[in-house]
Amino acid sequence: MSDEVxxxxxxxxxxxxxxSGKEGLFDKLKEECGVFGVYRHPEAASLSYYGLxxxxxxxxxxxxxxxxxxxxxxxxxxxxxVKEVFTKDLMATLTGxxxxxxxxxxxxxxxxxxxxxPLVFKYRDGDLAVATNGNIVNAxxxxxxxxxxxxIFQTTSDTEVIAHLIARxxxxxxxxxxxxxRRIVGGYAFLIMTNDRLLVASDPHGLRPLTMGKLGDAYIFxxxxxxxxxxxxxxxxxxxxxxxxxxxxxxLHEDRFEEQKHRKALCAMExxxxxxxxxxxxxxxxxxxxxxxGSQMALESFVDADVVTGVxxxxxxxxxxxxxxxxxxxxxxxxxxKYTGRTFIQPSQELREQGVKxxxxxxxxxxxxxxxxxxxxxxVRGTTSRRIVNMLRDAGATEVHxxxxxxxxxxxxxxxxxxxxxxxxxxxxxxxxxxxxxxxADSLSFLSxxxxxxxxxxxxxDEYKGGLCLACFDNDxxxxxxxxxxxxxGCGC
Length: 493
Known about the structure:
Oligomer: single chain
Strand order of the largest sheet: 4-3-5-2-11-10-12
Radius of gyration: 23 Å
Largest sheet: 7 strands, antiparallel
Distance between the termini: 31 Å
Number of strands: 25
Strand content: 15-25%
Number of helices: 17
Helix content: 25-40%
């Protein structure tokens, strides 16, 4: 094939999921990353390995871990999956009882090893390691200011900004960190480690999830509770918005860098799509919440059909809820192939749909001759929904009715989700009827914002919008978005 011909790829580089945060066969949203921390456990590295493995769905492009033995750091970062980055021999070198780990998609900063986290630095008081889940909205502005005053940046990641702010401060670590957090704007969950201390912080709105658990006398921190379950840790609580925890030789000290004056605004997409079904957030289990979304969807937009099926894996819970509410049988109408593994095949455009079928297949015996309700969690560009609808039709479905268990996704995210520019979001410029025709469905309905909030039923149900950020649906962003160099159309990828 001629070099001038542009061909699609399953993966775009030399390792599994390189560039997957940018494009792919499916236009699903990508979470930026997940974090995991351990304080004072002799097997900190091993616990972090299993914790990161449980959080692998939050970032499949790079993984990293930094461990302290009290005197020095031992760390490693690599591109690829957790099981590929950390070998048995390598794990033996990561000794110590304090650890922070990270899994990442390249939604902010380039897809390369220098941006893999945790980022590790030398500063006046010793070693410093930083890992974060989220996005700093005003990072470009702060970065420009720091560079003009002499700072030299080693990465293109937003996360490096916080390290420079801390390093340039004349205050002690805790006060320097507080000042830095007050300076930055965005959605974030930070783990900051020195040789003998661990700092844990959540943004003033709690946009990105972070939980605390205990394993014996050790403290464990994770983006999701499923990681705590994996290592047998007991869930203690969620980290509160604007909270700063300091763990040192004196134990755990609870502090704040921001007063509780901001609205709680946990990302609604965590409930809809990102988090694992076995995780809990704000007192609400994800599987149960998604079932309620499906049930509410049935109440709002019932359609008579023969079978209900969900797009695996994130929409299966909602499909079960829709089926239970309507009495229409739930069937496994689509199968996801979890073992495609690495591939460097570069198919021609004609074979692109075949590539989709490598990842997802319709079960002909289930859908053939049937009226199908297809449940999915969101529509981004519309290309994935169209492929799936056509796949079901090719398998013999007589009707395909699409039900989306979220409101129309109209606006980009600035807080750590890889979203396209606004003009690429199909719901930003097309009506529901137009989208329905675009994806070749017989009917299409979205869950209402009120139905979504009622379905989640977390501990913040009485708060503004149920304590959720719904900006991607309603354009009501919880933070200021004052971009001095022109308005952004999407995430700072």
